[in-house]
Design goal:
EC 6.1.1.16; tRNAsynth_Ia_anticodon-bd; four-stranded parallel beta sheet; metal-binding; 15 helices; 445 residues; aminoacyl-trna synthetase; zinc ion binding; alpha/beta
């Protein structure tokens, strides 16, 4: 059975036919490393990790590129607020990103390029766009002229007027068209440390050109799949298509566009002002196991909106516990490793993870009716989905998490004596606590 995916470019479910059936190539927009990944970031990571697992099962070679954006306005702002060197900040947050998504069983991509290591490729692409008449330098900026690309707006299916309204376009008198977007921008006086030399003066690349240059470097002018969150469809992915097709003189950029839906918390968009903004690390520190969190993400089809609620997490915990009851006497070392990975048939149908989980529950049902061979099927198929049911996990006790939260509150109130006392109590109970930006990490001594 072939793989079928909903292609955002055509809005229909299509059979996936790779350019080269011996080597599938996929690019996914990765994190901007200014803060720890939040629950929405993690959903995207799980979606494309699942797709990567499926592609590797079906095709002999898969190159999965997921970038690190380590030059950006948000990074500069975070660096100034933290009084921290940009290189130190991005290195630290990249490490946190790796730790946090590993906790939900996301495997590393084949290649993880950093934007700052590809500045020359970006400059060369911009020079090509200027030379061909698709871009123009003005007042230290280089802008892409959207009117020079006939296909602009094809991915998001928006009119130019809608795009201007929806993108919060910066009004600038030097633009030929209000929707022209930045390829290169000049450095401000306080941004020398976050800028680079170029033919147009010292500055830094626009966000969109970064992904175009990195995908070209590692996957070529045209590749199979480009993925990311639905919020990236416009302007980011729309602009990537325009500049890549024009710079590379190619008919197309990526053949299949795959986007995951938004994640809300209790029905509301995540926002620090609503006090519902939650990072992966905070969820883990609250005692939500990584396997439970991953199960939660798999319960909703990737293209649909998903709501993070206490009930959804409780249901995920019960499901994982049910599966572990099936495997309580299961020894993978003594098992037959050739069990059929039937969940791949569900995943081939546009990553139908809810159907895959239903299949796992079917195995559990048969096990409890006396068919003990279903334990093997449950284990192998759950493992393929990234659910670590046999992992020796020792959850942090609620009592310890409560003490850690009380300590964080004491620190916020600058009650250092109480904070030290609570640390001592945590350590006497056999755990250690490590402070991180805005949260903490707990581990057993």
């Amino acid at each position: 059975m072939s793989i079928f995916l909903i292609n955002t470019l055509t809005k229909v479910k299509e059979e996936f036919i790779p350019i080269d059936p011996l080597h599938v190539k996929m690019y996914v927009c990765g994190p901007t490393v200014y803060d720890r990944p939040h629950l929405g970031n993690a959903r995207s990571a799980v979606v494309f990790d699942t797709l990567y697992r499926l592609l590797k099962k079906v095709y002999p070679k898969v190159t999965f590129v997921r970038n690190i954006t380590d030059v950006d306005d948000k990074i500069i702002t975070a660096s100034e607020l933290n009084k921290e060197d940009i290189s130190s900040l991005t290195t630290r947050i990249t490490k946190y990103y790796h730790e946090d998504i590993a906790a939900i069983s996301c495997v590393p991509p084949t290649i993880e390029p950093r934007a700052t290591a590809h500045i020359q490729e970006m400059i060369e692409m911009i020079e090509s766009l200027i030379k061909q008449g698709f871009a123009y330098p003005v007042e230290g900026h280089v802008l892409f002229n959207i009117e020079s690309f006939e296909g602009y707006g094809k991915l998001s299916r928006r009119s130019v007027e809608e795009m201007i309204a929806g993108a919060r376009v910066e009004v600038a008198p030097f633009k030929k068209h209000p929707a022209d977007f930045v390829l290169w921008k000049p450095a401000k006086e306080n941004e020398y440390h976050a800028s680079f030399e170029s033919p147009w003066g010292r500055g830094r690349p626009g966000w969109h050109i970064e992904c175009s240059a990195m995908s070209k470097k590692h996957l070529g002018n045209t590749f199979d799949i480009h993925g990311g969150g639905i919020d990236l469809t416009f302007p980011h992915h729309e602009n990537e298509i325009a500049q890549s097709v024009c710079a590379n003189n190619s008919v197309e950029f990526a053949r299949y566009w795959v986007h995951n839906g938004f994640l809300t918390v209790d029905g509301e968009k995540m926002s620090k002002s609503l006090n519902n903004f939650k990072t992966v690390r905070e969820a883990l520190n609250e005692g939500i196991e990584g396997t439970v969190l991953r199960y939660f993400y798999l319960t909703t089809h990737y293209r649909k909106p998903q709501d993070f609620t206490q009930k959804a997490i409780d249901d995920a915990k019960k499901a994982v516990e049910r599966f572990r009851n099936v495997l309580s006497k299961f020894n993978k070392e003594d098992s037959d490793s050739t069990a059929t990975l039937e969940v791949t048939e569900d995943l081939k149908d546009d990553l139908n993870t809810p159907a895959a989980l239903a299949r796992l529950h079917g195995y559990a049902d048969q096990f409890f009716k006396g068919n003990e061979t279903m334990a093997l099927h449950l284990y192998r198929n759950a493992e393929f989905l990234g659910l670590n049911l046999l992992k020796d996990v020792e959850a942090i006790p609620v009592e310890i998490i409560k003490l850690a939260n009380e300590r964080m509150q004491a620190k916020a109130e600058k009650n250092w004596q109480l904070a030290d006392s609570l640390r001592g109590e945590i350590e006497r109970k056999g755990y250690t606590i490590k402070d991180t930006k805005g949260t903490f990490e707990i581990s057993k001594l």
